[in-house]
């Protein structure tokens, strides 16, 4: 081996054409693919010429395809350009498709546009392979409208199912699920043959838009056409039904699957979590373990989120230990979920320990920790951490970060700092305040007993106040005994929620605070007459790793009698203590 060849040999797999396919040829260039650079292209070409490989077009295509799918796809374009300008190759439909694929991976719409012009000049634009590569290139470069123009201007018969699938996938990649569904409808009307990729893309679009009608149609088509509910189709159906709020339908699909992979289990667990069925999510995770299926980081993040919402610290610690035993939880998303879980379960020390050990932090890491300090009453620590985040300057805060900052100010009664950060949100970071941020400011003013200022703030809001904003002011009215304003606010809430009784309940509490019992009775009578029903409150309690769920007035628990007897005993002790005092 000469000195030049020795220089390029590495421990990784070298770039070569398989001898089994072409026994007369040896290695083109002994360079590991990850180490190839543009300086190697002339040497690669010269070796190919000497070996006589340029006489075999399939070999050239193989080299181009390998380079285009490697870590530096621009090498494929450089090699193709050198071949063409050296006169060893004319551009054909296959090499042009490879070049467009490499361009899509870069991505570079300027290079892609030049290749598009070349395809028109060479008369290759009507070729189905080239057409599909053009559509994919424009979609990958975030030009879905141009990709659609390519499809619409194609000659009759040039488009196939791959063309439409690429268009739909491009819309989904660009965050345009409604256009994806529209393209799916046009595809169906045009009697284009649908395949499993089409149905999978349509299910993703249905899930993102909440269009269960299209999702059900895809489900029916999969069954009728014998596509089969495999792991890919099953997980997509589960996700679609869950995101459309039909968790029972999602569970039916899950239960009827003959084979499930980790994605199917995670999709079902995630569906429960998204719809607030945290207990069911944890129970399914336990069933997953019993079945022998190993969880992945996505599963862990979802289960930890359910533990956080239930306040189930013991379960959360168990899942954390499960990660350590099975070598999971290395992903930052899992670490962020653990920070959030420990914060919401009250173990803020453990949450900060995980946060401190992070070698890399994203905006979700900072936000979870800031919000964790805020909800645990550590307002100073939350604001100090936000100052540290700004000081480092590596990660920019987002809207949720500022929600944590404003929550800290509200809970700590820090009026001036609250206004300061609220203004900096738009002036410094150019983030438009959402309704949640305005709600925090109303809550901040209400806690400071500045009811008139809070009412004026709501009046001057650039967006219409929602129920939460008005309810924050009504809570403040109850604390201050401000009946007149409370009645006005209650009317506003009733306009937004005419069938709910939350405003009546809060207003009744305001009357009770000021000893206006006649008004209390009238209000409760009007609630009974209007057949308003108050949704019972729900709470979770964890005992020995088992989560128990209770509703107000609930008697379904197996130990209801013992629970009520204990509560009565506690009440008697409290009454006795108060009499002694």
TrEMBL record:
PROSITE patterns, sorted: PPR
Pfam families, sorted: E_motif, PPR, PPR_2
Swiss-Prot/TrEMBL keywords: Repeat, Transit peptide
PPR repeat ranges per the UniProt record: 160-194, 230-260, 261-295, 362-396
Superkingdom to which the source organism belongs: Eukaryota
NCBIfam families in UniProt: PPR
Protein name: Pentatricopeptide repeat-containing protein
């Amino acid at each position: 081996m000469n000195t030049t060849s020795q220089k390029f040999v590495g421990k990784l797999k070298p770039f070569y054409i398989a001898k089994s396919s072409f026994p007369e040829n040896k290695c083109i260039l002994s360079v590991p693919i990850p180490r190839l650079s543009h300086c190697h292209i002339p040497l690669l070409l010269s070796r190919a010429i000497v070996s006589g490989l340029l006489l075999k077009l399939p070999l050239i295509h193989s080299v181009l395809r390998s380079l285009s799918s490697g870590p530096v796809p621009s090498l494929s374009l450089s090699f193709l350009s050198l071949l063409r300008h050296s006169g060893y190759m004319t551009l054909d439909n296959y090499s042009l498709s490879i070049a467009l694929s490499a361009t899509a991976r870069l991505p570079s719409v300027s290079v892609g546009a030049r290749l598009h012009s070349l395809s028109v000049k060479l008369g290759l634009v009507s070729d189905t392979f080239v057409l599909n590569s053009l559509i994919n290139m424009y979609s990958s470069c975030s030009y879905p409208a141009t990709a659609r123009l390519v499809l619409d201007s194609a000659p009759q018969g040039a488009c196939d199912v791959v063309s439409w699938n690429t268009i739909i996938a491009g819309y989904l990649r660009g965050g345009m699920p409604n256009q994806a569904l529209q393209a799916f409808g046009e595809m169906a009307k045009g009697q284009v043959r649908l395949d499993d990729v089409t149905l999978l893309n349509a299910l993703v679009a249905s899930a993102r838009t909440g269009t269960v009608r299209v999702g059900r149609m895809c489900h029916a088509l999969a069954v009728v056409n014998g596509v089969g509910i495999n792991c890919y189709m099953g997980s997509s159906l589960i996700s679609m039904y869950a995101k459309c709020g039909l968790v029972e339908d999602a569970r039916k699909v899950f239960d009827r699957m003959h084979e499930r992979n980790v994605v199917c289990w995670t999709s079902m667990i995630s569906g429960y979590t998204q719809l607030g069925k945290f207990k069911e999510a944890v129970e399914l995770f336990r069933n997953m373990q019993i079945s022998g299926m190993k969880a992945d980081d996505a599963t862990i993040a979802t289960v930890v989120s359910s533990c956080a919402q239930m306040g189930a610290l013991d379960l959360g610690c168990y899942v954390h230990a499960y990660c350590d035993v099975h070598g999971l939880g290395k992903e930052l998303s899992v670490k962020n979920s653990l920070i959030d879980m420990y914060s919401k379960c009250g173990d803020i020390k453990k949450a900060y320990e995980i946060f401190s050990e992070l070698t890399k932090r994203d905006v979700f890491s900072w936000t979870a920790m800031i919000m964790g300090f805020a909800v645990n009453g550590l307002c100073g620590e939350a604001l100090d951490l936000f100052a540290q985040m700004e000081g480092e300057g590596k990660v920019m805060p987002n809207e949720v970060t500022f929600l944590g900052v404003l929550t800290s100010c509200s809970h700590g009664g820090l009026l001036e700092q609250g206004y300061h950060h609220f203004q900096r949100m738009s002036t410094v970071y150019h983030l438009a305040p959402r309704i949640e941020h305005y709600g925090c400011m109303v809550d901040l003013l209400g806690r400071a007993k500045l009811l008139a200022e809070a009412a004026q703030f709501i009046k001057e809001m650039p967006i219409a106040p929602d129920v939460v904003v008005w309810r924050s002011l009504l809570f403040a009215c109850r604390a201050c005994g401000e009946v007149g304003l409370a009645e006005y606010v209650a009317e506003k809430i009733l306009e937004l929620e005419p069938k709910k009784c939350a405003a009546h309940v809060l207003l009744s509490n305001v009357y009770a605070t000021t000893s206006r019992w006649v008004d209390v009775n009238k209000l409760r009578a009007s609630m009974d007459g209007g057949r308003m029903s108050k949704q019972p409150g729900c709470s979770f309690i964890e005992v020995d790793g088992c989560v128990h769920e209770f509703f107000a007035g609930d008697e379904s628990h197996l130990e209801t009698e013992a629970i009520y007897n204990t509560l009565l005993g506690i009440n008697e002790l409290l009454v006795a203590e108060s009499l002694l005092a």
